[in-house]
Each structure stands twice: as C-alpha cells, then as structure tokens.
Amino acid sequence: MSRTTKRKHVMREFLMDNFDLPSENQTIVRVVQSRGNYLFDVESPGDEENFLVSMPTKFRKNMWVKRGDFLLVEPIEEGNKVKAEIVKILTPEHIKEFTKANVWPKKFTSKRPLESEEPEADFSLSENPNRRRPDLCEAESSSETDSD
C-alpha cells in the first residue's frame, strides 16, 4: 500500500469516527511528554505514576500528538516500561460525547492550560506555542523604549 493510500485510510477512519465509548480494558490518558521513537509519557486518571505508551505503525507520520492531548489506550502484556498502545487520539468532539455519557475521568475535567477563554473556531487547530503573539511583542518593545 502506498504512503498516500495509507494516509487516506487513516484520516478517513479518524474523521469518520462513530464516537464509540471505551471498552473495559481501554483507558483515557493525557500526554505529559514525548519521549521520542513514537513513545509518549502519559498521566492516567488514577493516582498511579506516569507510564509510557507507544504509537502503532498506522498512526506514524500520519497523526501527531502533542503535550496535553488525550488518548485512548489499551494495555499490552509484553514490555516492562511500555505498558500500553494508542488506540485512538481523542478530539474535542470525543471529549463532549464521553462527558455526556459520564465516561470522562473527573481528574481531566479542568480546562487545559493552553486553552484560552475565546470561543473556538470551527476547526480544532490550536495556536502555535512556539510563536510570539504580535500584540505581546509590541507591548514588550514599547515598554522597553519608554524606560530608556
């Protein structure tokens, strides 16, 4: 299967999701840090310590995960450090459906730190945290020139 065909199938599965609720062995987790090589350090809803999850081959180079994103994972038996594998990358629509069905963990109900108070646009792209906002740059430069 070519790379383009594979990407098309993965994106179709991701976008045409039917919002199934998690099964008994699946867990909702939050990404704390990327460890490289498609491994992510995640925080579970319980009081357990953080653990590593792996991204399956079908998601690699097709889907991206960043800090603060929520994932649906399934535990795996092999391996001591990597304890689960990603089943689904959750979108805001998933979160709304899981909250309505009372499946969403109480630990993750607070707002994400990068979320602003402004209403969201139709698409779920967030602001790039590596770029300065123009209004902040102008305010900093004007205060520096006033003090000189």
Question: What is the strand content?
Answer: 15-25%
Radius of gyration: 19 Å
Count of extended strands: 5
**Biggest sheet, strands in spatial order?**
1-2-3-5-4
Which spans have pLDDT < 50 for at least 5 consecutive residues? none
* SS class: alpha+beta
Instruction: State the helical fraction.
Output: 10-25%
The chain-level mean pLDDT equals 81
Q: What is the distance, rounded to the nearest whole angstrom, between the alpha carbons of the first and last residues?
A: 63 Å
Provide the succession of SSEs: HEEEEEHH
| Global geometry | globular
Query: Tally the helices: what do you get?
Result: 3
Task: Let me know the largest β-sheet.
Answer: 5 strands, mixed, barrel
Written overview of the protein:
With 148 residues, the protein is an alpha+beta fold. It contains 3 helices and 5 strands, in the order H-E-E-E-E-E-H-H. It has helices at residues 3-15, 92-100, 134-147; strands spanning 27-36, 39-43, 51-54, 70-75, 82-89. The chain has a 5-stranded mixed barrel. The protein is globular. The model has no long low-confidence stretch (mean pLDDT 81).
